[in-house]
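INFO batch 0412 | record 1 of 1 | parsing
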Amino acid sequence: MVHGEHNKRGGGFALVILGALLFFLAPTVYGTSEGMGIAALAGGAVAGGAGFYKIRRQRGE
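INFO prediction complete | emitting tokens
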């Protein structure tokens, strides 16, 4: 089960991409619905921050 240990390490980069995508889409969503735009902006910050934290924690080990 060599690959089992490798598969546990993923996820941080995907969170960073998701956060960037939400940041990119937030102004567009804000034009149609202010509440959803603010939620997209906040969600992008949280997802991106969690992704960077996860990557940083993995690299430190």
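INFO post-check: The mean pLDDT is 83.
INFO record closed
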